[in-house]
Amino acid sequence: MSVLSGKKILLGVTGGIAAYKTASLVRLLIKAGAEVQVIMTPASHQFVTPFTLSTLSKKPVYTEFFNSKESGTWNNHVELALWADIMLIAPATANVLAKMANGLCDNLLLAVYMSAKCPVYIAPAMDLDMYVHPSTARNLTTLTSYNHVIIPAEEGELASGLIGQGRMSEPETIVAVLQESLNQNLPLQGKKILITAGPTYEPIDPVRFIGNHSSGKMGYDIAKEVAKQGGTVILVSGPTNQKIADPRVQVIAVMSASEMYEACHQHFNEVDVVVAAAAVADYRPKDVAMQKIKKNAEEFSITLDKNPDILASLGALKKQQYLIGFALETENEVEHAKQKITKKNLDLIVLNSLNDTGAGFGKPTNKVTFIDRDFTVQPMELKSKEEVAKDIVNKIIQHYE
Questions:
Q1: Is 391 annotated as a binding residue?
Q2: Looking at the predicted structure, is the pLDDT value of residue 70 above 60?
Q3: Residue 296 and residue 173 in one domain
Q4: Which band of pLDDT confidence, cut at 50, 70 and 90, is reported for residue 104?
Q5: N or C: fewer beta carbons within 10 Å in the chain?
Q6: What is the pTM assigned to this prediction?
Q7: Across 17-176, where does the E strand assignment appear?
Q8: Residue 127 annotated in ligand binding
Q9: 91 a known binding residue?
Q10: Are residues 176 and 235 located together in one domain of the fold?
Q11: Are residues 179 and 261 in the same domain?
Q12: How does residue 2 score in pLDDT terms, banded at 50, 70 and 90?
């Protein structure tokens, strides 16, 4: 998943030949998961049509303040500006750079720009002599002083036939600059988090196992949120139908508690945080049949051995790691959770109670209580698991602030 996923991007297109590249730019931004709203200056229509960019962005393209004299409706520049997470002006001509630097506002795009509260990125494009002119250099310096990000023009053949700097950066470069810039500002950038998710299956014979009803959704939602906040994830996952496709997330598939134990210990020394969201089986069959057990006897018993406590073993080895555990309880919930914090050397525990409606396995919602190592108890409201994941990740972010 790209860091641009879910971002709302205002793309301002101005009247330069490089405007033809914005069709590819819109496609790349949409492919990265962004929502794109295009605003064009009237002059830019000579180089790329609003219909093209509207089709690619799946939104109407705006150019004028008023939709028509007859309708009396207008395009609210303030609402457009407040909607955006990012404003990108590409291409930005010398004329538009001068207007932006000096506060001139004579079209819808500039009105939106002057109302924007979000980060602004500018990709200049013009001929060589215009790009090196002292006034352009001064305007770029002024815009940089406004904390705008300038995506420098590239060298190459220009529309005039000259060879030099002035070409708008390629769409791939612009998208890469946006991604890198956003990554640097994310709170978990540089942090590596180990997350366990899902159930474990403890084999009885080749076709039967001891397991539980965990769907793995909570752990996967936490992994997605960590990646969204800039962290890299090692996701040790038991059997689940959950899916994740994000270059920041490495999935290690395991089946049993022993396999999860080995995977966690293999990577423990390289991580900053552990979130143990998996529902690990406490016991496993002592003897596993090599062939399917036949239904012959009226009674059948299985001798169970205790599985290793993964989180307690990590707590005993803990150095600088921040450890978060989960507790699913049915009685004396808070007291049992506090005991686990001490016993397993945890920094935070996320308590679930099966007595709470909407909590537990196989549900899209969860109701948790946070308890830290100082035994501060913080009950939370019933929320979607995605929202609970955000709350858990916020606890990690707060730890490093």
A1: no
A2: no
A3: no
A4: very high
A5: C
A6: 0.70
A7: 35-40, 86-92, 120-124, 149-150, 154-157, 163-167
A8: no
A9: no
A10: no
A11: no
A12: confident
Residues annotated as catalytic (active site), given as ranges: 212
**Distance set, CA 147 to CA 14, 120, 135, 153, 186 (Å):** 21, 8, 19, 18, 17
Whether residue 163 is found in the same domain as residue 224: no
Question: Domain range holding 55?
Answer: 8-185
* Two tokens, residue 397: 């972010």
Query: Tokens 């549900």, residue?
Result: 363
Tell the residue number behind the tokens 């109407």, with chain if given. 60
pLDDT at 161: 77
What is the CA angle 8-230-174, rounded to 5? 50
292 is in an annotated binding site: yes
Residue pair 18/192 in contact (Cβ under 8 Å)? The answer is no
Mean pLDDT of the chain, nearest integer? 92
Q: What share of the chain is helix, strand, coil (3-state, %, to 5)?
A: 35, 25, 40
Angle at 44 between CA 38 and CA 48, to 5 degrees: 75
Q: Which residues contact 216 (CB under 8 A, 6 or more apart)?
A: 197, 198, 199, 237, 238, 240, 241, 242, 278
CA-to-CA distance for 237 and 328, rounded, in angstroms?
Answer: 18
Kindly report, residue by residue over 341-356, the tens digit of the pLDDT. 999 999 999 998 766 6
Q: How much is the pLDDT for 367?
A: 87
Residue 209 is labelled as binding a ligand:
no
Q: Is 383 annotated as a binding residue?
A: no
